[in-house]
Amino acid sequence: MAAIVRAVNLSKQVLSGELPLIILHEVNFEVTAGESLAIVGASGSGKSTLLGLLAGLDVPSSGSVWLAGADLFALDEDGRARLRGELAGFVFQSFQLLPALSALENVMLPLELQGVADARQRAEVSLDQVGLSARAHHLPKHLSGGEQQRVALARAFVSQPKILFADEPTGNLDAATGAQVIDLMLELNRVQGTTLILVTHDELLSKRCGKQLRLAAGRVED
Q1: pLDDT tens-place string over residues 24-82
Q2: pTM for the complete prediction?
């Protein structure tokens, strides 16, 4: 099966004073459609930088990323944003919900931005999938951390993305709530066939993914 995500000699360096600081060095790997990949490593190993590059949110110093056969960095910023909109969903450690919108409205938002006619109906189904139908009209401030992350998952999956990028999705949650969110992500990965690429320091979460990519000082460990 062809790779849906492929990194080729992906490198990132920045200037620290007058000296170059290497954040990532010639990272190579690929992920096929429907797989789950955990990117793991110590703090400062380059995990979040790698995720940002794979999603086209940051630009590499050298190397390339291919998403569903498209050369991401052959596109301009608008082109990368368009490709992200077509292919990707995102879940962050800090939930990133809009505080003035209800849970349902937060989930509807990406569909409304795409001009989808049945946005409300699809958002209701997505909230039901994460077990939050009863909380649909609550504002984020009236939801627990675990509930907010489940709303964020519903919003990420409502567009049925081909790839879900998740950055420390259980980082702000206690162990029990984090385990529920992991179950949910892997279930949605299985049911929708979404390719799951996540950054985590949680060994339990990484072991439940089909593949692991371990970084140390910006290099892939064998």
Answers
A1: 999 999 999 999 999 999 888 899 999 999 999 999 999 999 999 999 999 999 999 88
A2: 0.88
- Compute CA 163 distance to the chain's CA centroid, rounded to the nearest angstrom: 8
Measured N-to-C along each axis, helices 145-157 and 175-192 cross at an angle, to the nearest 10 degrees, of 10
- Give the pairing of strands 36-41 and 211-216: parallel
Tell me the C-alpha distance between 31 and 2, whole Å: 9
Residues 115 and 136: their CA atoms lie apart, in Å, by 21
The long-range contacts involving 113-121, CB below 8 angstroms and separated by at least 24 positions, are 114/85, 114/159
Measured CA to CA, the distance from residue 87 to residue 42 in angstroms comes to: 29
- Residue spans of the chain under pLDDT 50: none
Question: Please, which residues bridge with residue 166 across strands?
Answer: 91, 198
**Assigned token pair, 7:** 């990194």
User: In 11-90, which residue ranges form alpha helices assigned H by DSSP?
Assistant: 47-54, 77-87
Asked if residues 8 and 28 have their Cβ atoms less than 8 Å apart, the reply is yes
Answer yes or no: are the C-beta atoms of 193 and 36 closer than 8 Å: no
Separation of CA 24 from chain center: 19
